[in-house]
């Protein structure tokens, strides 16, 4: 009968047969799919795998440290941590159009990854966390011309000019199976049951031009929101993080007036977004308890100097999208 340990054993054998003694590189994003692929391939071939983690400066608070801790320190995976934030922010200077921002981030990502890959000429394989729904989706888009509302950028889809063979050990799995596999391989459940995070990261959650100071404010506000969602349970015992499909803060480059002590403040606004959805094609805004929203708002305004107003987004998809850009 089917069991997870048997499945892992078979998958490991298959990877070993495919790869032999050759080396593999993998773009690790910290998302569920690339993380589980990394853990599985590492189980199979150990140090023949090198992961490249590109920090574009638009990640969540402490994300790079978490990824390095989980993979390099705890699992002993070889991970090259590339801090490319200065380069990304430089190329984003003066750019406020959402599609242009996505294109620049996608293009820079490929460039940085390629540069790192060239430093590993012995690598013959490019591993990707492609899962079954991605396989179906890309098969579909070859026949129908997909109507693109937003150009999506992922860590996947790296150029063929790398001349590497593709290793995609999750190609037959659905998301739930990928998560189960991740836990069985020893990844922390919080990592495996995370909300999705877009490839362009905070780049599409800082409206208009992306600036480092704004990214820093947003990261801290977002962290408070996520922390409170994780720590607050509904009457059924589930956390509000687990009851929502995706939740995050958005930075609005708009200043409004407030008061603090005897002083007048004139600072930025943060919007909170939390949605419930089964497929991300349509979504409802999450009916979070007022008490929770109040606590998040107080904490953000008290702890993040530079933000003096917090609003909650009550728009469904459609007509709004989940992200603000
Ligand atoms: P929207 O905003 O289109 O988002 O309702 C639907 C889902 O897609 C994610 N998203 C992206 N993911 N690159 C990604 O990898 C992108 O450019 C991108 N834009 C949106 C969004 O976070 C949500 O889960």
Automatic annotation (TrEMBL):
Its EC number is 6.3.5.2. ATP binds at residues 29-35. One of its GO terms (molecular function) is GMP synthase (glutamine-hydrolyzing) activity. Keywords: ATP-binding, Glutamine amidotransferase, GMP biosynthesis, Ligase, Nucleotide-binding, Purine biosynthesis. It catalyses: XMP + L-glutamine + ATP + H2O = GMP + L-glutamate + AMP + diphosphate + 2 H(+). Residues 2-194 form the GMPS ATP-PPase domain. It comes from the Bacteria. Signal peptide: none annotated. Pathway: Purine metabolism; GMP biosynthesis; GMP from XMP (L-Gln route): step 1/1. Homodimer. Catalyzes the synthesis of GMP from XMP. This is GMP synthase [glutamine-hydrolyzing]. The gene is guaA. The chain holds residues 201 to 525 of 525 of the full protein.
